[in-house]
Specification:
single chain, 81% helix, mainly alpha, 10 helices, globular
């Protein structure tokens, strides 16, 4: 394993999630309790385990339909991966935060969705890097982790943050709450699934194609960040 120790590899694997976590938590004017952040982060990581088994089951089930390769990949990345993961991250937040008094603003839902997503991404990264280090040199593994920092880990936070935004809106607009929640899940699934589909089918052809999606992700991130600020203003107006 080239002189890379397992504790060092573990820290390196969770570093992208921790960096993004610090970035997003700084945006919260009314910080959430640390114990709640840790609880939801760990629940997000834990929920990745059943996600793996469910995704494997769905992959095997979809294989029985004998779809063309691209059609199979598109359906699998959208429904077998993205939908499953976004829904389970919501389950982690529902279990860990939604009934807690500490969640006193609708905007907190968005924060906790991002926290759960980063926990999920952390365990995903740990499993991936510990598998890769057995096959590839440490330099290649570190490169993969660096790319995942600006791609996969950011994508997890962005997609779940988008879902969380619609969940927060649903609190304000109770008349359309169900439609807003479903819309958030659909948009998060589309963003997550189409990105993965692109990376798997096109992104691996060369380094440029691999890095190209970063720009659209950043643009979407700017939009979501702007809506986050608007949501905070809305919270300040609606809540004492």
């Amino acid at each position: 394993m080239a002189s890379v120790t397992y504790p060092l590899l573990f820290l390196f694997a969770i570093a992208p999630s921790l960096i993004w976590l610090a970035f997003y938590l700084r945006k919260d004017a009314h910080p959430e309790p640390n114990r709640m952040i840790l609880k939801v982060f760990l629940l997000g990581a834990f929920i990745a385990i059943p996600a793996i088994y469910l995704e494997t089951f769905l992959e095997e089930s979809l294989s029985s339909f004998a779809l063309p390769r691209l059609a199979f990949l598109l359906v699998y990345f959208l429904l077998g991966i993205a939908f499953v993961e976004e829904l389970l991250k919501y389950v982690a937040v529902r279990i860990g935060a939604l009934s807690n008094p500490a969640l006193d603003e609708p905007v907190d839902v968005m924060i906790y969705m991002i926290v759960a997503a980063l926990g999920f991404a952390a365990l995903e990264n740990i499993l991936l890097l510990f598998g890769l280090i057995k096959i590839y040199p440490a330099s290649d593994v570190f490169l993969v982790n660096s790319i995942r920092f600006v791609q996969a880990v950011f994508l997890h936070a962005l997609a779940s943050g988008l879902f969380g935004y619609f969940l927060a809106l649903a609190i304000f607009r109770k008349r359309h709450a169900r439609l807003l929640a479903i819309s958030g899940l659909v948009l998060a699934t589309l963003l997550h699934g189409l990105f993965n589909f692109y990376i798997f089918t096109i992104g691996g052809k060369n380094f440029f194609f691999l890095l190209f999606p970063i720009l659209p992700l950043l643009l979407i991130g700017i939009i979501v960040s702007r809506e986050f600020r608007r949501l905070k203003l809305l919270c300040n107006k609606k809540l004492p």
